[in-house]
Amino acid sequence: MSIAEALELAPVESHLHPEGSFDLADHPVPTGREEIWRFTPLKRLRGLHQDTPLDGEDFTLQVDAAPGVTAVSVPAADSARGVSGYVPVDRVSARAWDAASTVFEVTIPAEAEIEQATTLVLHGGGVEKAAAGHLLVRAGRFSKAIVIVDYDGSATWAENIEVVLEDGAELTFVTVQDWNDDSVHVVTQHARIGRDAKLKHVAVSLGGDVVRASTSADYIGSGGSVEMLGVYFADQGQHIEHRLFVDHTAPRTQSNVLYKGALQGDEAHTVWIGNVLIRKEAEGILTYESNDNLVLTDGAKADSVPNLEIETGEIEGAGHASTTGRFDDQHLFYLQSRGIPAEEARRLVVHGFFNDIIRRIGVPELQERLTASIEDELAEHVGRLDA
Questions:
Q1: What is the DSSP code (8-state) at residue 126?
Q2: Cβ atoms of 274 and 285 closer than 8 Å
Q3: Which residues contact 61 (CB under 8 A, 6 or more apart)?
Q4: Taking a C-beta distance cutoff of 8 angstroms, is the pair 275, 14 a contact?
Q5: For 210-349, where are the E strands, in sequence order?
Q6: What is the rounded CA–CA span in Å between residue 350 and residue 261?
Q7: Within a 10 A sphere around the Cβ of 372, how many other Cβ atoms?
Q8: Helices 342-361 & 329-336 angle (0-180, nearest 10)
Q9: How is the beta sheet containing 225-234 ordered, strand by strand?
Q10: Name one GO biological process term (predicted).
Q11: What whole-number distance in Å separates Cα of residue 338 and Cα of residue 217?
């Protein structure tokens, strides 16, 4: 199936995923009663969902492009945005699409195999003025590459990200939310997967006051696969929300979703919504989604909602799972009975909880950073307890 043909796919019929529109009038201001907004603390979005101007410029972008990779800013009118087939499905996404005057385009040439990661670091300089961004990442046929987007500093940021894999491409795409505690970030990502292409999508959420990330994927050819991995750690007062939608639009495609999160501190709140739609034409597909949450203290709350809609019985396999719980008392007792202090035992259990998914990321420098960040989160909590 060509990209042009894929753009003619029938509208998504899932009640879990609203129909998209570029017209802002089709996206009324949410009230919080809508299914896609009911978990989000709208009052803390600083008007991103309403009409606050998105004209802030207090941010910088640092680019370290691997050899052979093109990374340039293009005026929105001259860009290739929209090539992923994405159409805004909520008001913030539609506003960000309208407000972004430029599109930052990262292009991996066809047949290029690039070991060095291309890294983009977006640094926010303040939360007073909201801003909008748009990123487009395209992986050429049979290419292989890694792209990492790193967020830090303070910002009120609305954003759309498009990721396009042509036939046979392999891409690891990583976003790291390492914002300061006062930041608000609402981002929508959409990936389009070509025939026999493989996307590993990694989402890491550690910082920010409110982070809401909506990620979707569809296919324009058989044999494509998507692996979505997520790691998040919410501290006191933080709201971290991940909404996922995998739309199996082609036969013999695969998707595997695994997100793990930990929470600690009063009013720490995480939300994970996993939606998978298997269309009638998606025969022979294989999909599984899983979310695990570890609640470390009283006062923290995790919401986890897996959803699976199947329109054909001719599939290889489909399933989902979700767990939310506290420490396993048996594990703690086992460690403490061997002379390990309580806090050290807790640290070991948390690292064990995250260890498998961190190893699967496949980017060594990022894996080391995540391990250190989790250690810092645990140390900070212990410090508060000792204060």
A1: -
A2: no
A3: 104, 120, 121, 122, 123
A4: yes
A5: 210-219, 225-234, 239-248, 254-263, 269-278, 286-295, 301-310, 317-325
A6: 10
A7: 10
A8: 120
A9: 59-64, 118-125, 144-154, 170-177, 198-205, 225-234, 254-263, 286-295, 317-325
A10: iron-sulfur cluster assembly
A11: 47
Parse the chain into domains and list their residue ranges: 3-326, 329-387
Q: Which amino acid belongs to residue 345? A: A
Q: What whole-number distance in Å separates Cα of residue 350 and Cα of residue 262?
A: 8
Per-residue pLDDT 10s for the chain (387 aa) are 444 344 455 555 565 667 899 999 999 999 999 999 999 999 999 999 999 999 999 999 999 999 999 999 999 999 999 999 999 999 999 999 999 999 999 999 999 999 999 999 999 999 999 999 999 999 999 999 999 999 999 999 999 999 999 999 999 999 999 999 999 999 999 999 999 999 999 999 999 999 999 999 999 999 999 999 999 999 999 999 999 999 999 999 999 999 999 999 999 999 999 999 999 999 999 999 999 999 988 899 999 999 999 988 888 899 999 999 886 666 666 556 666 766 777 777 788 889 889 999 989 989 999 989 888 887 765 444 443
